[in-house]
Specification:
Chain lengths: 263, 263, 263, 263
């Protein structure tokens, strides 16, 4: 089912037949963690129905504490792939170590590099060698220049299928989990040909503030958003405060449809 | 010409007959500094023609260095008022000290408190006592809670005509002058009835990144923007890097018209 | 009792006969706020006995909330001056507005500019005109360059009697109230002839971490410290978490005596 | 030559017969990168003569750009080990990926986890399993709590031989490369039994400011420092701006001897 990704002349990344780049707005949605077949299937169908174009789900979870839920591992990845096939949605999932890369690349369409691994250089090289599309999250204290330098590690292996992701930076403000740096979008659009999406869920960390920031991301010229959706957020095994319900997500995609794609 | 401001039942501030609040989007534009009659008149007519709803212009300029241009003072304020009358635009200008408040309130519609004075408590009390609409800028390292506490100093004098302004916070990122904290908008909309506008000019400090952030500000639910416009930015006596040309500004208001007012 | 201050050839500031500069280490201590004659008298005698060289005490208090204790005003300043005379300690107290400057200068030896007023330019000019020694605190998000530019506002009025003060900057770390930037001391020693002292109380905000940072301040080459001491911290009307007891302070000065003056 | 490390009852870590903990002050010195046998041998003898107690040197270098010098790899590690044996100094070197851990542990005494890998959880687990002493650097935007949570990943594998390292955090201040957070030392001493050392070289990034911060680190209660020393800094292949000459280092250890060990 995985087809060879290719890069258009300019800034676009193709994930199967989904185009991420100028003139398009990707909506990447799914649970923080894949928790069960029922959970991911139900979520995949719900987000598809509301307009999602890619399905996300965590199999390996980087957690601040070693005693927190660490994800279902490869079993989670297989469930995600199954849900992706069932809904015809390409899949996005994080790889945390070099040894996971090959096996994850065999079943997942877009390999995500998390914020804590933006400068895990061996991992960057490893995903670079797969040729697979990569969603590269900005480190939570990385400058824009450092994000681009990290992308160079992937490109140096011959892989230009990179989707950058702004997900909030560390600042003194504590009302939100991080500070979403939307100014980075026009800066990145000027400095690179790579598409850039926005993750407001991890930036603000509070469900009801995510929708307005999705709209802002589209208006500022981002090429998409990535958000966390769960059938029942209060039962989520990770990031429950920021998980959207199906209804929240449907409202957000409806709101997004009122904002034109900016270019 | 100055009419008594009043507050509607909920979140709106009236500046003459211009309403700032839910369902409206204020466009506040004008030069960083008033430099001459010709400059402010030309700018006022240009921004009015492109859709500005209020006219801004600095008379007293807080400058990091004592040797930088400090503004035309009361003469600048009078020129701004004249340009406002000529174009039927209410005016916004900064007050920097208690002694300026009364005289500025006599000719200017909205008294602006700059980012460096957000916790200049005597000044907050002084503008509070005027009853005049106040545009209160967030300190560049102030939390959202501290911004609201600063507004309390004005409210404690009986003046609720306050327009809050997010203008970027200090972070490690140096590609932009500051980091515009658009996440603050949904947080503020939840925590206060006061309207909040966004100043992207001082946040990013680079002309060509301002337009996308204006659109983002509207999409995230801000009640307006405030931007710097100059007939010839390269000749501006202050902030020339971030001043918009008349053409830039016309393009931005055209782009803004494509974004609905969110509520 | 106030004698004309003067500046030595190089980096020293004289406050009466107390020298602040290379080869000396000033210990400035006293309550956050002057609360009563008994409180300030008792504190003055206690800190004098433990080695303090200047007496601090707040008369006008800048408070985030308008509903918090705002200080005793001029009455507090007079009590501080009285306690200074009784113990032969020069006094330090904050001025918050231009109108306070002349009257405060008549009874207080060192006029303090607080962190929130570092760029209150009219106030800087006003203390500059007094010729009185000024203790200029770094703004909580001010760069080192901006601190020096603020000092220029005072110097431009002909007053070089400036003691700079590092007091912590805003960062993402929340274990401490602010992050004390001791790296600023060698940078400032290189860039300016002005002496620089360190305020660890406001930086860390927790009593038991202040002592080690006082020692670090001396070791890094600062010209002194300024700390808050109270007869009974749990009863303090402001900043009770960071006020030192008399015993704490005596221990700190004993520890400081084990660190040589670095130059 | 590598002996089994062991932990004393409380906070001490033993590296061979060098004790890191209360009452001791470790001086860890050596080049940023091992560049040649001559360079590391010469440096090892010089730092030993001036009082260093451990020898550091980079074999694998995490670099922001893929096109920068990446270190000599295992050859560099072998050269470092040889220099350590020749001078009877235990060695410290960074591991960047899980696959390097076993081979590095066979020749290096202390495995360093760099700032970019503080939350590379698989790597933390891998060094945990070796039982070898680990020098764990704080992430450049990690809170103190997150640093301790990262240490838990190592401890969870049964390895308590952890030396924490404060190395500067990201802030808005640009005069220094990072902001050294010395307030973290008393906080860490209160919250954990693990020893903590300070790396001022990476924090300030400028040679001549390192000495004062070494003294401050000792005075604030750190259990040691780690600094970069090079025979000829202007020829260094990495971090040349912050490398100390042999003379600089000798002056610093002389200055340090004037500061008592605080506890």
């Amino acid at each position: 089912m995985i087809t060879a990704p290719c890069v258009s002349g300019s800034r676009d990344v193709f994930v199967q037949d989904v185009r991420v780049g100028d003139g398009y707005f990707a909506i990447i949605a799914g649970p923080c963690s894949v928790e069960s077949r029922a959970q991911i299937m139900q979520t995949a169908h719900a987000v598809k129905a509301s307009g999602a174009t890619l399905l996300r789900g965590g199999a390996f979870k980087p957690r601040t504490s070693p005693y927190a839920f660490q994800g279902l591992g490869y079993e989670g990845a297989e469930l995600l792939a199954e849900a992706g096939r069932a809904t015809d949605l390409p899949t996005v999932s994080e790889v945390m170590s070099v040894e996971q890369v090959e096996r994850m690349a065999a079943c997942i369409d877009v390999l995500q590099i998390g914020t804590r691994n933006m400068q895990n250089f061996d991992l960057l090289r490893a995903v670079g060698r797969t040729g697979r599309p990569v969603l590269l999250k900005r480190g939570m204290s990385a400058t824009i220049d450092e994000l681009l330098a990290a992308a160079e590690y992937i490109i140096a292996e011959g892989n230009q299928n990179i989707i950058l992701c702004e997900r909030g930076i560390r600042t003194f403000e504590s009302a939100t989990r991080n500070t979403l740096d939307l100014s980075a979008i026009p800066v990145l659009r000027e400095r690179t040909h790579l598409p850039v999406v926005v993750d407001p869920s991890h930036a603000v960390g509070v469900r009801r503030w995510i929708g307005p920031l999705c709209c802002a991301a589209k208006a500022v010229g981002a090429h998409g958003i990535i958000v966390e959706v769960h059938p029942n957020p209060s039962d989520a095994l990770s990031d429950k405060e920021q998980a959207l319900t199906f209804e929240d997500f449907a409202q957000i995609t409806a709101d997004l449809s009122r904002i034109p794609v900016m270019s």
